[in-house]
Write a structure and sequence with these properties.
Layout (H helix, E strand, L loop, with lengths): L1 E6 L2 E4 L4 E9 L6 E7 L6 E7 L5 E3 L7 E6 L4 E6 L8 E8 L17 E2 L3 E6 L1
Parallel strand pairs: 2-11
Antiparallel strand pairs: 1-3, 3-8, 4-5, 4-9, 5-6, 7-8, 9-10, 9-11
Length: 128
């Protein structure tokens, strides 16, 4: 019902930046939030950032606060993740996610089970 396609990943040196995009298509109505998660080889998929669709309130993992910025363009059905001051430990596949679930006006959408649809991922590799 909802398709998500990520783009913008690549290979950068430590301290560099990338702009990731996630384009949504299909039945994108009833959307409450979109988020970004990442997964390194052998590790669990973990929360990075989320944005509520109405109002645009944002939430970030402590490890990326001050370095990453999530934003959206509702007209384009697209969410972005600007990643700055990259570190080797940021290396992972970055996944976009879509949530049609409402919990409360202040819910932070930091859990994998908060989301209904996932993209295929885009690789971010940071060299030291």
């Amino acid at each position: 019902q909802v398709q998500l396609v990520e783009s913008g990943g690549g290979l950068v040196q430590a301290g560099g930046s990338l702009s990731l995009s996630c384009a949504a298509s299909g039945r994108t109505f009833s959307r409450y939030a979109m988020g970004w998660f990442r997964q390194a080889p052998g590790k669990e998929r973990g929360f990075v950032a989320a944005i509520r669709w109405n109002g645009g309130r944002t939430y970030y993992a402590d490890s990326v606060k001050g370095r990453f910025t999530i934003s959206k363009d509702s007209a384009k059905n697209t969410v972005y993740l600007q990643v700055n001051s990259l570190k080797p430990e940021d290396t992972a596949v970055y996944y976009c996610a879509w949530s049609g679930r409402y919990y409360s006006d202040s819910y932070d959408y930091t859990h994998k089970y908060d989301y209904d649809y996932w993209g295929q991922g885009t690789q971010v590799t940071v060299s030291s």
